[in-house]
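Posted in: Structural Biology > Protein-Ligand Complexes

Title: Requesting predicted complex, flavin mononucleotide in pocket

I'd be grateful if someone could produce the 3D structure tokens for the following input. Sequence and ligand are given below.
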Amino acid sequence: MTSSKDEKDKKHELNQSNDIMRRKLEHLKIPIEYNVQHKENYFEDIKLLHHSAPEVNFEEVNLSTKFFNKLISAPICITAITGGHPISKEINETLAKAAEKEKIIMSVGSQRVGLIDPDSIESFKVVRKVAPNIPLIGNIGIGQISSPDFNLEDFEEYIDMIKADIMAIHFNALHELVQDEGDISYKNFRKNFRLIREKYKIPIIAKEVGTGLNSELTSVLDGLGFDGFDVGGTGGTSFAAIEERRNKYNSEKYTRNPAEVFREWGIPTPVSIIYARKVSQKPIIATGGLRTGIDIAKSIALGADLGGFAYKFLLTAWDDIKNHSGDTTLKEIVTLKNELRSSLWLMNIQNIEHLKLNTKKYVILGKLYQWIHQK
Ligand SMILES: Cc1cc2nc3c(=O)[nH]c(=O)nc-3n(C[C@H](O)[C@H](O)[C@H](O)COP(=O)(O)O)c2cc1C
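-- Reply #1 --
Done. Output follows.
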């Protein structure tokens, strides 16, 4: 016989799972239906230097690179978007098939719901099923690591769920702050992370979600034992803008909606790449407002290892699901590769290694210049 405590726990878990499902669906639909992109994009302030007579053969420009010792065909990552909801399964399957075909890296969205609601696990597992060979990045939040209910063994379940090659812990303080009942206490984070670090050998990266990592925190996280970073700066999707659409703020308490006021808060992605590279030699993914293969080239010239895209691939996957195909996502990856290869060729650069931190190949102008020359 089940006790009333068990029943209460089950009911609580069901409510939690329903809440997460609703939130997941809203997070997917809002960026598609509304403009929740940051207003400024600092990649425009980087100019790559043209070379009028490239001596390398276009076809011989080599985009392949290694990330945590895994060879991929190009420095492109489908960054964390989703998991949990039935529609997330379709999105993840579509993206993973394309990523496998084009041999690039892919991440899943936060896996927390996978441990709360077993029915949702398939939306994550499907990724490894259709993409057996590419490196996959798992994902959980700083909120889960910091929770009083933190359970060290859960980390292993997240890894196993997708047979992850790398795990990401996402840092989304602003997002949590402007949503109802967000997790905004990270006091246990360092202590619990150390336990994870001692027990698990898998590479773990620290990932921002659109507000950017600064040098100080990057340095601390590097020292704590993180193996890499996804700087997730401003310039692309704004989670405050998403929450502005989702939540009715408490107008009895405040005269203004915090989600609206903090819509543009954060460190631009190019600045965050420079900040992170200044203090760490570890792998860096540049995500947040990248739009084309030229932005990947700019990111790598500044010191990143990969360019990551979430919003762009959310749109292509949505399109593919509507049209019962995988063509748009595949074509987008091929397009990014062509743009990146063209950028290298037009700078007379043969491979990704020669582009990395190549300060002779770019000029920084405008507001971005001002950002990075502040004392
Ligand atoms: C619909 C949606 C859901 C996301 N969910 C997650 C998530 O679960 N975990 C995470 O680390 N980042 C998540 N992100 C953040 C992205 O991985 C990325 O850092 C951010 O959107 C900036 O990249 P973009 O400008 O290319 O969209 C999500 C982004 C979008 C658009």
